[in-house]
Design a protein that fits this description.
Helices cover about 30% and strands about 25% of the residues. With about 280 residues, the protein is an alpha+beta fold. The protein has one domain: Jelly Rolls (Sandwich), CATH 2.60.120. The strands form three sheets. Strands 3-4-11-8-13-7-6-5 form an eight-stranded mixed beta sheet. The protein has a three-stranded antiparallel beta sheet with strand order 10-9-12, with no helix packed on it. The two termini are about 30 Å apart. It binds 2-oxoglutaric acid and fe (ii) ion. One of its GO terms (molecular function) is metal ion binding. Belongs to the iron/ascorbate-dependent oxidoreductase family.
Length: about 280
């Protein structure tokens, strides 16, 4: 039976909340079999779930710090941000418009000191590096666990196409996406993520996912001490369609301008990997 949506109130409006499982990173690290099965089921059914990282206080402090870095970055004048613009198709640099902006920092660039960080981000270079390292270790824990449940009787391993020292486009991406004064101005940006796994931290309602069993939209709220994690198209393909890359979008439940920040880690495969069932 499909799990029921829950209800919440935002500014007096009742909303449907997606029934996301909470997976414990600590239990996965202890190789807990029940937790592994729970992760597999969550990745298979909704493809969206929480990962509880509340034991990792330093990492959560890094996330908090990144919110202020993000705010500081986006409140600069447009000319300053445009200095960080790369090509539209690159997984790095600043992109933006009137009511949105993103800044992407590639893991490889940070590891190999290839591209210098934007000036206002430089004081937080250590935070950026720690966040990327911890996020990367965490997604590796998730794919190691998923490999065991996807292929219990074989040596197939998602880690084989995500080797640590091979070039990849895994990145930290921070966003400005304010809630707008009028709901009529909110555009539709329904999509699936292309990569393997996405980690998301946000301070406000906004994320909506399409429930696979009835195609209805439900909201995903921030949960203290947890990352919101979702399966991307690459992982759906590598798993032979067993894991679900869920359609989602960013919208807003009520009218009224409010800034909204999001911090994401996009875990992507090694460059040049052929996308097919592993
Ligand atoms: O900001 C959000 O809530 C989600 C962002 C997102 O879906 C994405 O960056 O792919
Ligand atoms: Fe997304």
């Amino acid at each position: 039976m499909a799990p029921l949506t829950e209800k919440a109130f935002v500014g007096g409006t009742e909303i449907d909340v997606a029934p996301l499982e909470v997976i414990s990173l600590k239990l996965l690290l202890e190789d807990d079999q029940n937790e592994r099965v729970k992760l597999h089921q969550a990745a298979q059914s909704l493809g969206f779930f929480y990962v509880d990282v509340s034991d990792s206080k330093e990492y959560l402090a890094d996330v908090e710090q990144l919110y202020s870095t993000t705010e500081r970055y986006f409140t600069q004048p447009e000319e300053a941000k445009l200095r960080d613009f790369m090509a539209m198709d690159e997984f790095r640099g600043y992109k933006g418009g009137k009511n949105w902006g993103s800044l992407e920092i590639l893991r490889d660039d940070v590891l190999h000191d290839k591209v210098s960080l934007p000036t206002v981000v430089q004081p937080d270079a250590a935070t950026v590096q720690h966040f990327i390292e911890f996020s990367h270790d965490m997604v590796h824990t998730l794919i190691a666990s998923l490999s065991k449940t996807l292929w219990p009787d074989s040596a197939k391993n998602l880690g084989d196409v995500h080797r640590a020292n091979e070039p990849s486009n895994s990145s930290l991406k921070v966003y400005r996406g304010p809630m707008l004064e009028s709901l009529a101005d909110v555009g539709d940006n329904t999509h699936t993520d292309g990569g393997t796994l996405t980690l998301l931290y946000t301070d406000k309602w906004g994320t909506q996912i399409e429930l696979p069993w009835n195609k209805e939209w439900a909201w995903v709220g921030a949960k203290p001490g947890c990352a919101i994690v979702n399966v991307g198209d690459t992982l759906q393909t590598l798993s032979g369609g067993k894991l679900h890359s869920c359609r989602h979008r960013v919208s807003q439940p009520v009218a009224g301008f409010q800034e909204r920040w999001a911090i994401t880690y996009f875990f992507r495969p090694e460059n040049g990997v052929t996308l097919a069932t592993l």
